[in-house]
Amino acid sequence: MAEWDAHVYDTSLKFVSDYGKELIDLLKPQKGESILDLGCGTGDLTAEIASKGAKVIGLDQSATMLEKAKVKYSHLQFVNADAANFNLPEKVDAVFSNAALHWITDQYSVLKSVFASLKTNGRLVAELGAKGNVEKIVDSIQTVIKQGGYEQVQLSEIFYFPSPAEYATLLEKIGFRVEFMQLFERPTMIMDVPQGFIDWIKVFGILLFQNVPLNERPKLIQKAAELMAQKLEKDERYFADYIRLRVVARKLS
Question: Cα dist. 196→2, 14, 65, 199, 200 in Å?
Answer without folding.
Answer: 19, 11, 19, 5, 6
